[in-house]
Amino acid sequence: MIILYHPRATRPRNRRLPLAVLALAAALEGTEDYEIVDGNLEDDPTGRILELIGQHHVELLGVSCMPGPQMVAAMETSREIRRLHPEVKICWGGYFPSLYPDAALNARYVDYVVRGQGEDTLLELMEAIRGKRELTSIKGLLYKDMFGLRHDNGERAMKGPDEFPWSPFHRLPVEKYLRPSFFGKRTAVHHASIGCPFNCSFCGVHAAYGNKEKFESPERTVAILTHLVDRYGADSVQFYDMNFFLREDKARELCDRMAHLNLRWWCEARVDIMSRYSDETWAAIKRAGCAMIFFGAESGSDWVLEEMQKGITTEQTLEIARRTYEFGIIPEFSFVIGNPNDPDRDTQESLRFIRKIKRINPDSEIIIQHYTPTPQPHKAGGEMYGDIEVPFPDTPAGWATEEWMNFTLRIDTNAPWLKQKTKKLIDNFETVVGSRWPTVQDIRAPQWSRLLLKALSAWRYTFHVYKHPFELHLAQQFIALRKPKRESL
Q: Measured between alpha carbons, how far is 206 from 183 in angstroms, rounded to an integer?
C-alpha cells in the first residue's frame, strides 16, 4: 500500500480539497492500493497512518507539504513514523521540498524528495522500490543511498493537466470540504494549470514548477466543475492557478462555457495582461460569475517593479482598479513593501499609491506584507537581498523555529534591511486601512463590528495619522476580524 499524506494546513472551517494529493491519487487510481490521509480532516492523522501501517504492508509514505504550519505537521508525523516503523520509506514532495530539497533531504526521516510535478516521478519511484528500475533513472528525484550519499537526478519536464486523469473525488468525503465562504455556501477549489512563464525575482513558483504555464483545456475545466456542481452541490469555486488568465481568447472561451453553471468564483491574474482585455471580455468574465480577482500589485514604485522583474507598471494597476470598479468585480491587490535597496522610499511611495487605488475603487481589498523574497532552491545556505546576506535554515527543524516560521508567513520577518520605524509604519498603515475597509471575505463578522471599525479609523485615514493605533488593535482583538489571504492562520 501507498499512503498519501496531506498534513494539516488550516483550521477545519477553512479546509478545502487537498488538490496536491488528489493529483497523485489520480496517477495511482486503478493500478495501486493506496489511501489518502488528510490532516485537515482527521483528528489524529499520525494515529491513522500508524493504524494503516499496522493493517497493511505499506511500501511508501508520500508526504506533500507547503512551507509554514503544514511543513511542521509533516515533520512531526514523519519523525514519529520513522521512530516506530523504520522499515517504511518516506518521500516528501510539494512546494516546500521543491524549493528547499537539500533541507528536506537533511532530515533523517526523509528518504526521497520529489521536486516539481510528482505524478510520473511517484510511479517510477514505486518501480524502483520494487526493484524494477534504477533510482538514478528517475528525473525530479533526490535521494540518499544506503551509505547516506546524496543523489540529484535533475529536473523533470512539466506536463499539462490534460495529460493526467481527473482527480478521484470519490476517494474523499467531498461534502466535508465544500465549506461556506464569501463566494458561496459550498465552495470548491480547482487548479487548471501548472507553472508560471514570468520571472518575478521575489517568487519561488517559477523555480519550483517551471517557466512555462501549461493549461487544462476549457472543456475539461468545465466538465470537472460540472461534476462538482451536479454530484456534490458546489455553488462556488476558488481557482488556485498562479495566472488564471493569460490568453484573452482562451479566457473568453472558458467564461462562455462555464457561465451556465451559475458559480461565483475567485482567481488570480496578472495586472498587465488583464489591463489589455477588451470590455467584451471583461463583461464575459463578469457574466461567468467572477466575484473577485487577486492581483500582485507588489509596489507603488515603478523602479521597484522593474527591479523585481515583475513586468507591470503602476499605471496598469490603476487601470485594473478602474476596470474592476466598472464591471463590479472586487480586486485584491497584494503588496510586498520595503525593498532592500531603498525600503523607506518604497514604503512611502507604496502607501501613497494604495490611497490612490482606494480613491479609484474603494472596494479594493488591500493585502500588505513585508518584502520577503522566497529563497531560490539553487542557493545553498543563503542569498543576497540587496546588500544583506541571509543564512537560511538547512533542515525542516530549522524552518520550524519561531523566527523562520514568522519569516515564511511574513508575519514578523525582522528583515535586517527594514528599520523598526519603517516596519511599524507599514504595520500601522495596514491596521488603519484594514479597519477603514474591513474585508468582505469574513462572513462571520457582524455588521455592527464593521461599522465600529470604520468609525474608529475614519479620522486616522483622512488625516494620515498611522502612529500608535492602539484603539484599532484593541477593537480588532475584540472583533477578531480576519485579514484577506490569512484564512490558514
A: 29
Query: What are 27-84's pLDDT values in tens digits?
Result: 999 999 999 999 999 999 999 999 999 999 999 999 999 999 999 999 999 999 999 9
State the sign of the Cα–Cα–Cα–Cα dihedral 109, 114, 119, 124: negative
380: Cβ–Cβ under 8 A, 6 or more apart, which residues? 102
Measure the CA–CA gap between 186 and 238, rounded to whole angstroms. Answer: 11
Q: Which residue has the cell 537560511?
A: 392
Q: DSSP letters along 214-230, please?
A: EEPPHHHHHHHHHHHHH
Q: Which of 60, 112, 103, 102 is nearest to 81 (CA)?
A: 60
| Cell numbers that stand for 446 in this block | 457582524
DSSP 8-state code for residue 342: S
> Residue 251 and residue 136: Cα distance in Å, rounded?
41
What does the angle CA 189 – CA 229 – CA 258 come to, to the nearest 5 degrees? 80
User: Residue 163 — left, alpha, or beta (φ > 0 → left; ψ -120 to 50 → alpha)?
Assistant: alpha
Task: For 208-226, give one letter per residue: b (16+ CB within 10 A) or e.
Answer: bbbeebbbbebeebbebbb
- 310-345 CB burial, b ≥16 within 10 A, e <16: bebebebbbbbbebbbeeebbbbbbbbbbbbebbee
Which residue intervals of 248-395 are DSSP H helices? 248-258, 271-274, 279-287, 302-307, 314-327, 343-360
- Residues 398 and 391: their CA atoms lie apart, in Å, by 11
H or E element in which residue 95 lies: helix 95-99
Secondary structure (DSSP) of 145-195:
-TTS-EEE--------GGGSPPP-GGGS-GGGT-B--SS-SSEEEE--EE-
Nearest to 63, CA basis, from 49, 42, 52:
49
Give Cα 198 to chain centroid, integer Å.
16
User: Going from the N-terminus, what domains does the chain have, and what CATH number goes with each?
Assistant: 2-152 (3.40.50.280), 175-479 (3.80.30.20)
What's 481's DSSP letter?
P
What is the rounded distance in angstroms from the CA atom of residue 357 to the CA atom of residue 363? 10
Cell of 280: 467584451
CA distance 237 to 229: 10
Cell matching residue 449? 463590528
Q: How far are the Cα atoms of 18, 67, 129, 248 from residue 327, in angstroms, in the given order?
A: 32, 36, 55, 17
pTM passes above 0.70: yes
Instruction: Tell me the residue type at 193.
Output: S
How confident is the model over 278-305, as pLDDT tens digits?
999 999 999 999 999 999 999 999 999 9
**What is the spatial distance between Cα 275 and Cα 439, in angstroms, rounded to a whole number?**
24
Partner residues linked to 267 by β-bridges: 293
Total residues found in the chain within this entry:
489
